[in-house]
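In the design runs reported in the main text, the only information available to the sequence generator was the tokenized backbone. The following block is the verbatim input for one such run; it is reproduced so that readers can re-run the procedure and compare outputs position by position.
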């Protein structure tokens, strides 16, 4: 029996709990958190009103939804819920019927079509219809304004090759899908709560690896029954936020000399206008002056840019001549003697005179020797107004040097057909044909011709040939 006062208040429970009564059916072996399964027939009558939910889906999901929609209809038909897909409007609709036997299943069906719209596959989305399962669509698009930062943090949640996402799915026992600016999660209530906290921490610049370590530690502590009623704070890792600032170079402050007098007062804007005379100008005159200054500055800038563009096409100055490059003939510092020798050797090499044995040489002015004078082509004199230039002096000196060359006198020898060897006669014929063949050698001044009465007899059975006089 319970003792009661004059006022009839239950003394055991106190004044504030006077209406509390004992519950003999509430014992310690009852689990208050257990969810009872709802079965067909638990609802005594059908629903009085029709409830419906609709959601839109993006265009890239249209093809997939068309393929799986028959499976969606058959899955919801078991609960007495009607599903409708509208491809023209781009929406999915679920509504109750008179055959619906679960009053809460329409909310579960709404969550399922939301998951389907957020790229969750049908095999995973249909799990939300179970009693112990729930879903959550976490919006992460408005956490950060910077798009690059948003993409970087979202990728941090996925991890390399999706490893971070897989670890979260194993620890929370939830299915997680990151799509666009939302994260869809599907699983038990406890896991969904953990997923939301981790996702929001990640988007707030806290790396998910810290939360993963905490979840792994809790998972190990749950296995120890001795720690079931104790606080786990001493076992959980604590991470301090380190904001490492880059070291900036210290500015060297130059101390000014101390002066007891204050600095001179700076002129105000009105003082400057009075000094320049701008203060007394009218409004339209001020505007005209400002426009003129602006136009002048634009012209200077455009001229500067034009110079920069033209500077690209200006050839760089060549200070040093390359090796082997000829110097200017007009230069007064030309070594005339060296140039004279060079031209003399060049003219001698260009004569192409074959080497003839001294025994066969004919005492004739038409047969030149190596040391004899080499006749030259007469060059047309170019008319020029300049006189006594360095190039004229050099050419005149070279001509004088070539004119002074005289052939050496040699002893006269009589030549007969027996004294001429067979190889040399063939060589003479080859030289003659080579001279007459080329364009430049047609008018050559170096033909080798024998005298009129001399005939060269070859020992071979070839026909005898007579060499004609050079008509040059």
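Verbatim output:
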């Amino acid at each position: 029996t319970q003792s009661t006062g004059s006022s009839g208040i239950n003394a055991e429970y106190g004044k504030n709990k006077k209406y509390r009564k004992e519950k003999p059916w509430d014992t310690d072996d009852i689990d208050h958190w257990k969810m009872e399964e709802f079965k067909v027939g638990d609802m005594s009558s059908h629903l009085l009103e029709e409830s419906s939910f609709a959601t839109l889906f993006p265009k890239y999901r249209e093809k997939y939804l068309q393929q799986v929609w028959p499976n969606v209809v058959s899955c919801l038909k078991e609960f007495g819920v009607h599903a409708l897909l509208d491809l023209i409007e781009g929406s999915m609709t679920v509504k109750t019927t008179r055959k619906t036997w679960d009053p809460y299943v329409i909310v579960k069906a709404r969550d399922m079509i939301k998951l389907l719209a957020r790229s969750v596959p049908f095999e995973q989305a249909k799990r939300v219809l179970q009693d112990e399962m729930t879903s959550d669509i976490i919006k992460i698009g408005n956490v950060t304004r910077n798009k690059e930062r948003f993409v970087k943090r979202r990728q941090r949640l996925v991890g390399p090759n999706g490893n971070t996402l897989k670890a979260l799915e194993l620890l929370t026992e939830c299915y997680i899908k990151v799509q666009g600016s939302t994260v869809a999660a599907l699983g038990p209530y406890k896991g969904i709560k953990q997923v939301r906290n981790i996702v929001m921490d990640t988007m707030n610049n806290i790396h998910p690896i810290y939360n993963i370590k905490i979840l792994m530690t809790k998972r190990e502590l749950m296995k120890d029954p001795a720690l079931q009623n104790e606080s786990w704070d001493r076992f959980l890792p604590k991470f301090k936020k380190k904001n490492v600032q880059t070291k900036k170079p210290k500015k060297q402050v130059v101390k000014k000399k101390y002066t007891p007098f204050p600095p001179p007062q700076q002129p105000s804007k009105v003082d400057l206008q009075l000094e320049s005379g701008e203060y007394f100008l009218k409004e339209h005159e001020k505007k005209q002056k400002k426009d003129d200054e602006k136009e002048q500055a634009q012209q200077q800038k455009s001229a500067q840019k034009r110079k920069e563009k033209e500077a690209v096409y200006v050839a760089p100055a060549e200070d040093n001549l390359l090796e082997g490059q000829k110097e200017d003939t007009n230069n007064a510092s030309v070594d005339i003697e060296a140039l004279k020798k060079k031209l003399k050797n060049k003219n001698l090499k260009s004569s192409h005179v074959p080497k003839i044995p001294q025994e066969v040489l004919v005492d004739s002015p038409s047969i030149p020797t190596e040391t004899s004078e080499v006749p030259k082509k007469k060059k047309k004199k170019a008319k020029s107004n300049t006189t006594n230039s360095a190039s004229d002096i050099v050419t005149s000196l070279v001509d004088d040097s070539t004119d002074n060359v005289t052939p050496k006198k040699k002893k006269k020898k009589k030549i007969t057909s027996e004294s001429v060897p067979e190889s040399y006669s063939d060589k003479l014929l080859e030289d003659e044909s080579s001279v007459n063949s080329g364009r430049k050698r047609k008018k050559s001044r170096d033909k080798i011709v024998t005298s009129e009465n001399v005939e060269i007899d070859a020992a071979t059975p070839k026909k005898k040939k007579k060499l004609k006089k050079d008509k040059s």
